[in-house]
């Protein structure tokens, strides 16, 4: 395969923000032997950098911070054998490009010649390759290529029927889950000759989760549900079921096998916080790992120097956590930030039972102002991880109640699936119940709660404001859509698939009627702020424009009765991640009641 060069690299001549300015880290990846890591870091001013880390006996050590000029949502990073990082990104026309990022800037920028996007996997240690590429898309076969620094830059190693999911590199072999005719099967791909064989002999369908020391961890798909099992990579025999329980609450996420293959790291998610345990898969004995209350990501590496995985808590943006070989507690690469606002978990009465919420700032019972913050998704949740926006709200003196109402993840299938076919049903009932509780406890002398929401949360916030017009002091909706059916009609293929999967098309017929925000606009009486990015490829900006036009037609005065801020150069993440972002400042000012002008330094417009 050949490739043309001269593609514009993802970095420029900008200065690199200090690590202490980082507020968000995402997209963590590890190399094949687990000795290096890479991630995207975002500073308080919104600048993005690629970070590289070495993982050794003294803990994680940062070795690279270099500007990243591309959208992190469309960027893949992989740590390489030295201190550099391989970056993949997409241009304006969807073309994929690669470059090695170093402290001196990008090197070897090249366009990917494959018509289907490549998902990057780490290359085998010592192979001399930059990475492996696995083709995506909806094709009936999967292409596996070796990405080289010399010619040929892209070398086909295998083309196999079906889709290859995941990818765990073990020397010259890669373990995949092959999805063929809808059935998951563990397979082994030999990179030397392109040969593909089943990993186990018979048995139930299964997914590959992790591997080490010739052992592979599988998630078997049975009639009774998922079951963890171990198999030997070099012996075609039935898998053996893993014994034991973590003894911890919540949903279990297997992370990694120890380099000796005799222990298993497990993450459990229970509501807004995470737990970590180490399990002996033969005896079933489990050991709990101490860690600050917070949020873990289900990606990890385990080497002779310990277990590594990303951790975040209310006082600390996400960073690498380290469990030394004989350690009992997770050690963190960075201290808590001075001046951070602590968070706590509280339970509030929902419409059909208790609802957990993450709470920031002063006591909501006596604070001058309180914000009910609604997350996007809807398959998402607030966690005890570091959240720059909620920190900014609390720093401005706001009490913030961020509930995980029905529809949120982390509380079991029934809680999550409660809104399937009922968008704006059970979740709306929970939010209005919590709002009434806040108002009732705070009393008539204090201001009523304000609403904040983003994406699906913005849609839910607008529905809530319309359902109980007298119940709210204000409503800030960031990147809202008007209804599930209209989002399905106007959204991208990916968004349409999400709406179908979560059944946002079914209309509700009750007192409130169909959950269309434009239809309910006459009931939006609270002061309103709409914020949308003109380049939003998830929720079309036309939805906010239509709502602003409808409000204007109803006689609401733009800039007085409601405020519409459209950012021409931003997409779905219109707020960005930085606490210094002027749009974030505008939203916080609106919620504090201290004025609602368009933020300086942005090209926004009020009304339409």
Describe the protein's topology.
Layout: E1 22-30, E2 36-43, E3 48-56, E4 59-67, E5 76-79, E6 85-90, E7 96-102, E8 105-111, E9 118-122, E10 131-135, E11 141-147, E12 154-161, E13 163-170, E14 173-180, E15 183-190, E16 196-198, E17 206-212, E18 215-222, E19 225-232, E20 240-241, E21 251-257, E22 264-270, E23 273-279, E24 286-289, E25 295-296, E26 301-303, E27 306-313, E28 316-323, E29 331-332, E30 343-350, E31 353-360, E32 370-374, H1 388-395, E33 399-403, H2 413-417, H3 426-442, E34 450-454, H4 456-467, E35 475-478, H5 484-490, H6 493-501, E36 528-533, H7 542-553, E37 562-567, H8 582-592
Parallel strand pairs: 32-33, 32-34, 34-35, 35-36, 36-37
Antiparallel strand pairs: 1-2, 2-3, 3-4, 5-6, 6-7, 7-8, 9-10, 10-11, 11-12, 13-14, 14-15, 15-16, 17-18, 18-19, 19-20, 21-22, 22-23, 23-24, 25-27, 26-27, 27-28, 28-29, 30-31, 31-33
What descriptive keywords fit this protein?
five-stranded antiparallel beta sheet; 608 residues; disordered C terminus
Task: Please give the count of helices.
Answer: 8
Approximately how much helix is present in the residues?
10-25%
Strand content: 35-45%
Tell the overall outline: globular
Strand order of the largest sheet: 30-31-33-32-34-35-36-37
Number of strands: 37
Low-confidence stretches: 1-8, 596-608
How far apart are the first and last residues' alpha carbons, in Å?
A: 50 Å
Structural class: mainly beta
Output mean pLDDT.
Answer: 89
Main sheet attributes: strand count, strand direction, barrel closure: 8 strands, mixed
- What radius of gyration results from the CA coordinates? 25 Å
